[in-house]
Amino acid sequence: MNGTDLLRIVDAMHREKNIPKDVIFEGIEAALQLATEKHYGEEEDVAISINRETGEIHAQKGEQSIDPAELGRIAAQSAKQVMIQKIREAECNAIFDEYAAMKGDLVHGTVQRFEGGAATVTVGKSEAILPRGEQIPGETHHVGERIKAVILEVRKVGHRVKIILSRTHPDFVRRLFENEIPEIADRTIEVKAIAREAGYRTKIAVSSIDTKVDCVGACVGVRGSRIKNIVDELGGERIDIVRWNDSLQVMIPNALQPAQVEEVFLYPRLGRAIVLVKEDQLSLAIGRRGQNVRLASKLVGWDIEIMTHDELNEGIEKAENWFHQVPNVTDEMVEAFIVDGFLSYDDLTFLEPAQLAELAGVTEEQAEEMIAFAEEAAERVEEETRLHREAEAEARANAPPEEAAQPSGSPTAASLFATDGPRAPAEHKPTLESLFGPDTPAEPEEPLSAQQVFGEAPPAVPEEDKEESPEKE
Description:
Elements: H1 3-17, H2 21-40, E1 46-50, E2 57-61, E3 64-66, H3 73-100, E4 106-115, E5 118-123, E6 126-130, E7 146-157, E8 160-166, H4 170-180, H5 182-185, E9 189-197, E10 201-208, H6 215-220, H7 225-233, E11 238-243, H8 248-255, E12 263-267, E13 272-276, H9 282-286, H10 291-300, E14 303-307, H11 309-323, H12 331-339, H13 345-349, H14 353-360, H15 364-398, H16 401-404, H17 432-436, H18 450-453
Parallel strand pairs: 10-11, 13-14
Antiparallel strand pairs: 1-2, 2-3, 4-5, 4-7, 5-6, 7-8, 9-10, 12-13
């Protein structure tokens, strides 16, 4: 092979497999080096080099020049194997580097086949895998279909690169918004946080750096033209767009929309927020199977508990009764616990002895004793609660049909607390006003949802809370 042919082959491999030319030349040199050593013996001083400009091969054994064509068939076969291995390794590294840099980016691909529920997708010149667990629940794909997904993970498996795609990751929604909404792509509007349960509902918090640009309106578009494309790509998944606010007193009510919130109490030590709502807003704030409050908690990064005023007062009474049973505790400690948001034995077990000692003003030994008591009591309360629920379930199962059909009422936050302990003296019971004060949070800004834009019925009341109306004859 002359130098011109070698340069043409190297150039073709470089374009086709995206391998640097130097890597290809080094692979050929290594292959020729091995073939020459096999032919003459490894003890010989052999040097192989290829001119990068002309493609000419220079082979020397000591001071003597060698013609590679004289090495023989066996040496040539060894050189071929080495060259193929080097090129495969270089190709694997090139693919890995290319797609590792694209991690989290949106890609388009074509479904080629299915294996055990997982779809093999052609992305560019490579194959990627869309596992069943990364597909949106309820959606189906077919061979030849063009799909969008984000690159979730890239890893090497032997001499191959495994590319994992996802359509359930929150970044998938983020990239779709960047594609459909120019203001997000040019950073005029920023996506602050996303909480998603794929196939069901997504909450996305946005803010604008330009006061003239309405971040929520820009994301929805004229008559929902922008958000409609995203909803269609997600198979009808519900999307709530909320306005971001750095103040949790405003952000938490925004995140809980469409429910109306009365008050928000923050407890930084526990990372918890207690949100008070009216009785008719309780099920709406919690959402179907707790979805609304769960997504709101993910969006703001705090644990959110939804309660009515009566449930909070009942919880405070029970917490006061329980905490008076803890060893070494005083009335002042009980009030300090409740003011800091501790409403159960479990809450005390989250603290380290040093933290509890600082909060309660006791020694670490006394704090350890208090935590040990709280752990045992928490297990006892949990067991009592479990037995109580089993008894209720058994009673409903054995009730007459007309009684069993009666709704037993939605579970409340107060029902999470177990049976009452001995009541404390009335003068020690803290009131709601004395603990939290009369201040109320600022009114939340009401976001627009895709459903409201499309003209569908606004989600004022969840389906499960609507009473069935009798059919007209």
